Amino acid sequence: MLKQVKYKEFEIFYYDDKYMEVAKKIIENDYKIIKILKDTKRNYVSAIEIDENNYIIKEPRNEYIIPQRKLMSFFKKGEALTTLINVNKLIDFYDFKEYARPFIAITKRKNRMIVYSLLVMERIIGEEERNLKILVNLMEKIHKKGFYHGDFNPSNFLNSNGKIFILDTQGKKMFFGNYRAHYDMLTMKMDSYKEMKYPYSKNIFYYFALFVKKIKKLPLIEKIKKYKKNLREKGWKI
To answer: Which superkingdom (predicted)?
Structure first.
């Protein structure tokens, strides 16, 4: 059962009581940074140590830096809490043991909008899984249960001593037909494995997903994305 506790100006969400103290130490900055994995205007990810236990912390900064996303957080749980709930459900209810488990979500709101958000997850040590058949088969199983990844590429799958772990997903459910299933598979095929044999029948949702992918790859769109990234690095909130 999901638990919620107020600590100072933060809301802490967790399932297991032992993580309450972990959350407090993170809020108090009472931890050791082992390695910073990403540190940009939009995202921060690092491996940390608390009481000889290792964790991954992820701060989705774009959720409160980009004005339209911050405004939408008025109506939403937020990325950290959504991930905590969805992925634990996928592991415990749907028996997908391949997901890296999230332990804690920490949020801070002002005027009911998120101004700070942090997700605490288990740390997986492994190598990027590059076996296309393994990846596609696993994603097909997830799609059959009505869920999708959102960024289906090899960098989000680790092989740890022969066991595959899925990273960097909110574990959301599909609602618009199987559009998201097609988008996942097209992401893998177009971005990582052009020789990949497409596993699904091509319906209207396939062609819509293909259209969206191709639009995003247009030189003008790529140029706009690069321009926006440069502005963000200069401090613009877009």
So the answer is: Bacteria
